[in-house]
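Field reference: sequence -> structure
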Amino acid sequence: MSNRSCILTYHSLDTSGSVVSIPPELFQAQMAWLARSGTPVVSLAEIQKMPGAVALTFDDGFRNFFEHAFPVLQQYGFPATVFVVSGFCGGRNDWPTQPRNTGIPFLELMRWSEVRQIAQAGITIGCHTVNHPRLPRLSEAEIEVELRVSRTEIEDRIGKTVDTFAYPYGETTPEIRPVVGRYFRWACSTRLAFVSGQADALCLPRLDIYYLQNQFWFRGMGKSYGAGYVAVRALLRRLRRLRHGG
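Structure field:
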């Protein structure tokens, strides 16, 4: 890796081919390459202090993390952060805002006993709200409830402090971030970019693994051609959102 650090976003390890899924075998190959390459894999708390490092994050808390990712992370001694939707632990990802007819599969989420087990083994548990809402559509009071209730339940369940957060759908605004800052030290967005030491800790950019499934691009994260690829992908994403009024 170069001096560019990045936070990788994973969701589900399954073979559906959806935009939030990668096959478990591909994940295993990616982790094996990180280990062989000597790339520092660090926690979210350390990523801005460690040039050329990678931090691993998993949104939603799918049960296939426990089945497929957790053993691989243990094998290599890699830290990771899993953002759980507290109101749906032990259920499925069928929260009210989940888009329908997009090919995203409805899958089991980890049970609290499994969340507690991975936390005890060193995986950082972060907050992803109670109900996975679109935060910009809520009042400040409603946002406060989502953050406070979720953080409190997770802490009660795992017996550890929760100081990391991921915005559902990556949706955040300058008005929302100070509210999040009352509860958490670090918060992850879905803005597609590398992370620097100067990045806003309450709006950390990440690289979605959807764009890095090809091993050529995954291994190029720290190279100049990889940086160019990420920049082009980010531009195309912005243009697509503008076209659709997002």
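Note: The chain has a mean pLDDT of 95.
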